[in-house]
């Protein structure tokens, strides 16, 4: 999962806080948007994060142009690359000029601005949409921050398990693994390091955010947590055990030896290259498989599944995204109307069909839509979104605790610890101590 908030380290965020208003307020001044266009008509500016599909990006722009024509409102739409989004937004907030009215948003992005969240409370709008077109519970409940919404859920991604069924069947495994214990056992059985083939595509390079999420989910599933519900640090031997298990698999050459150097694309690249049997990745991997003829045989031998369960639970990460209204917006009612327009069922369903299964819908009625029931990969993506309940810092419930967890996440604590333990740089006990120390530092920064 390629993270959106790539540059949001503590210093960057701190720089922008002074320019932000308080949560739920409207700020005026030079940073406020202008409510009128050149000819006196109303005007609104929206920054949309570009996604993988040029066709989908164009379709979003067309929809906003349609709103402009139907409502006689000037819509200034800017499609911003994901890697530039936050840097650009922080610069606008800091300068107090050219701040958009609506932005693409997610929970982690919002939390990184706490306590001066620059997005207004849109709880009424979310509930209004929910009343006419119910959200999936995981999207409705999972995007609240202490009972409030700071963005309107729009779609969600997933991290599915891709399995080489041919390799497993050749090893006598006819039942696909659905628990971590079975995953590791199958991966060990199919590994053939002498021929550069390995069972498990889980890396631990310095900035490998894909596998950062995988480690986090595995730890939860085995009952290991960094925090409790109140935000107290609770890392214990179960967290250590997660790193020890990875080090064991790495030493046994169940994981490729170069996995310690991977970036976020290392796991799917190894799978596409035919070097690994089991990979955890966003459905972008499925898209790569089906869109290139050279992977036709690999696609035919791939099963796309939900992530495995652990001995304690089957919690996995929620990746909801949506639209937020900035507190500098000069016409919040207009901004709300634009967002509502994007959730129109006919257009929304058509838009989501075009990007399936990379992103999945967040509404209950998707479960009755053939696009999401008849295609196995689409169905797996929707099932994931429907059941996802985890988040950075799970199960902490306080906004301050979740903020600490979100900030800590962007230092890639899990892959760094896993790397150190796997390479013998340090023990799992010492790695966890270092993580706890880093969390304590972040707690000191969050007021």
Commentary on this structure:
The protein has a six-stranded mixed sheet. It has a four-stranded mixed sheet with strand order 6-7-5-8, sandwiched between helices. The protein has helices at residues 10-17, 54-71, 82-95, 107-111, 123-132, 137-142, 165-170, 180-190, 209-221, 237-251, 266-272, 284-291, 296-300, 332-342, 345-355, 370-373, 376-387, 399-409, 413-422, 428-445; strands at 42-49, 73-80, 102-105, 152-157, 160-164, 198-201, 276-281, 302-305, 319-325, 360-361. Strand 1, helix 2 (54-71) and strand 2 (73-80) form a beta-alpha-beta unit. Helix content is 45%, strand content 12%. The chain has 447 residues and is an alpha/beta fold. The radius of gyration is 22 Å and the shape is globular. The two termini are 29 Å apart. Helix 2 (54-71) runs antiparallel to helix 15 and helix 10 crosses helix 19 (413-422). It has 20 helices and ten strands.
Summarize the model shown.
With 447 residues, the chain is an alpha/beta fold. Helices cover 45% and strands 12% of the residues. The protein has 20 helices and 10 strands.
Number of strands: 10
Main sheet overview: 6 strands, mixed
Taking pLDDT < 50 over at least 5 consecutive residues as the criterion, the unreliable ranges are 1-35
The best one-word shape is globular
First-last Cα distance: 29 Å
Give me the side-by-side strand order of the main sheet: 2-1-3-9-4-10
Category from helices, strands and their pairing? alpha/beta
Number of helices: 20
**Rg measurement, Å:** 22 Å
Strand content: 5-15%
- The chain-level mean pLDDT equals 91
The helicity comes to: 40-55%
Helix and strand run? HEHEHEHHHEEHHEHHHEHHEEHHEHHHHH
């Amino acid at each position: 999962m390629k993270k959106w908030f790539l540059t949001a380290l503590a210093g960057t965020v701190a720089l922008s806080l002074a320019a932000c208003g308080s949560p739920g307020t409207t700020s005026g001044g030079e940073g406020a948007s202008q409510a009128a266009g050149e000819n006196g008509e109303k005007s609104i500016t929206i920054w949309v994060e570009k996604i993988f599909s040029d066709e989908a990006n164009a379709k979003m722009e067309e929809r906003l142009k349609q709103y402009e024509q139907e409502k006689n409102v000037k819509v200034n739409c800017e499609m911003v690359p994901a890697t530039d989004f936050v840097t650009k937004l922080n610069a606008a907030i800091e300068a107090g000029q050219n701040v958009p009215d609506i932005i693409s948003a997610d929970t982690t992005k919002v939390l990184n601005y706490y306590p001066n969240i620059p997005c207004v409370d849109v709880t009424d709008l979310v509930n209004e949409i929910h009343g006419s077109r119910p959200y999936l519970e995981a999207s409705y409940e999972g995007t609240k921050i202490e009972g409030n919404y700071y963005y309107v859920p729009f779609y969600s991604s997933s991290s599915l398990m891709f399995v080489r069924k041919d390799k497993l069947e050749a090893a006598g495994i006819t039942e696909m693994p659905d628990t971590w214990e079975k995953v590791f056992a199958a991966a060990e059985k199919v590994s053939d390091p002498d021929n550069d083939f390995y069972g498990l595509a889980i890396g631990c390079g310095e900035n490998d955010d894909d596998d950062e999420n995988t480690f986090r989910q595995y730890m939860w599933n085995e009952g290991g947590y960094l925090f409790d519900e109140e935000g107290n640090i609770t890392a214990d031997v179960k967290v250590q055990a997660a790193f020890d298990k990875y080090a064991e698999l790495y030493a046994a050459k169940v994981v490729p030896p170069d996995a310690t150097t991977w970036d976020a694309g290392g796991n799917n690249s190894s799978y596409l290259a035919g070097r690994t049997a089991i990979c955890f990745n966003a459905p972008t991997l499925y898209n790569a498989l089906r869109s290139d003829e050279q992977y036709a045989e690999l696609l035919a031998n791939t099963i796309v599944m939900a992530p495995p369960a652990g001995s304690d639970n089957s919690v996995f990460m929620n990746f909801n995204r949506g639209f937020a209204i900035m507190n500098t917006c000069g016409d919040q009612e207009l901004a709300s109307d634009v967002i509502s327009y994007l959730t129109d069922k006919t257009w929304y369903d058509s838009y989501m069909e075009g990007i399936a299964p990379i992103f999945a819908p967040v509404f209950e009625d998707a479960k009755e839509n053939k696009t999401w029931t008849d295609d196995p990969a689409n169905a797996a993506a929707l099932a994931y979104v429907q059941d996802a309940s985890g988040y950075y810092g799970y199960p902490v419930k306080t906004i301050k605790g979740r903020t600490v967890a979100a900030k800590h996440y962007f230092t890639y604590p899990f892959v760094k610890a896993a790397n150190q333990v796997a390479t013998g740089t340090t023990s799992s006990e010492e790695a966890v101590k270092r993580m706890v120390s880093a969390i304590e530092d972040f707690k000191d920064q969050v007021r």
